[in-house]
Amino acid sequence: MLFLDKQPKEVVKQIVATHTCNVCGERVSRFIDFNTGTEFIACKDYTRTHHEGIGRQITKGQAEEENYQGGIRRMTQLEQAHGLDKTKALAKYQASVTLTEKGAMEILDTIWPEAPATEKKAAALLCTGYKLNPLMGHVFLIKFNKKRNGQIVGETWARVLGIKAKRLISSRGGAIKYLDMSPRIMTDDEQITVWGKVDQANICFLTRLQDASTEAEAYGYGKWPNTADPYGTDKGNTKENMAGIRSESQALDRLRPGEMPSGVEVMDAQYMGVDDPTQTDVISPVEIEPALDVPTTDELRELFKVAEENGWEPIQVSSMMIALFDKEKSQDLTRKEAAELLTRLEAGPKEETAPF
Predict the structure, then answer these.
(1) Which of 89, 193, 216, 272 is deepest in the core (most CB within 10 A)?
(2) Residue 205 pLDDT > 90, yes or no?
(3) What pLDDT band is residue 192 in, cutting at 50, 70 and 90?
(4) Same domain, 225 and 287
(5) Measured in whole angstroms, how far is the alpha carbon of residue 211 from the centre of its chain?
(6) Which of 16, 36, 54 lies at the terminal end of a domain, its last residue?
(7) What is the rounded CA–CA span in Å between residue 84 and residue 90?
């Protein structure tokens, strides 16, 4: 059950409309304990079953529907930003999650023409490897100003996943329940339990998930600095939203280990417009919390496939990696390095003595 402590009526109605009993899956209702006057939400059959716990469930169908509807909105935005002709050219990709690399690159080149080729290549591999589509709010390229001591010293581009992309990937493995009204702000006691102290410098969120079929559970924790404005603040994004998304992202990673992209920041698609890839006075999430940026197994397979198709010998590929990145194994490459290597491999071997 969930006890209500002066919760707004709108919040209570939303909980009742979107949550189910964590035991039997039935809808939930609002109750009152007449002995104490305490209000709570529980299984609609609580007086008979006394079932404890409520949860919010997301299924594969719901995740795909969310992304489809969001895709329609983004096509409207795309038309406003880039014109009808380009929008018509990309319409064939609108609802597809089986993009080829060529198709993904066409989308990325249209929406983010100024982004570095290596970042677009890496984003295209992300799309093909995980069945994602930029037109459905799954993948974004964002330009950030790099700052040092408050001064802008350059710019950098980053690949970003929409949180709905991670929900979609995770839902392919079965329905998921969101428990304990999460994502939500952590209590001081929860922070002490997890980290041994209360973090005063960051907004801290918790997400608790459960696999609907196996009942396996996973917790995720997310932080965002109190002093750093996130990307999309002008569109309504907040520090709390970013902390919540980070906690949900970590929980999804833990519930579906090995199935999620690694080393890519996650944000909410509704705060990222196709016509405004640059936000000047924000800190890159990558600068706030550097992530391990390694290519996936599918991305490495693509490297080897392209090398073979273009006539590269294994020793040549190995020599190129050493010359370019001082690395002998493809598993040690970063995603950016893998994307650069892929570009060179597609050009085919050259005749020069020192082709690198």
Answers:
(1) 272
(2) yes
(3) very high
(4) yes
(5) 19
(6) 54
(7) 10
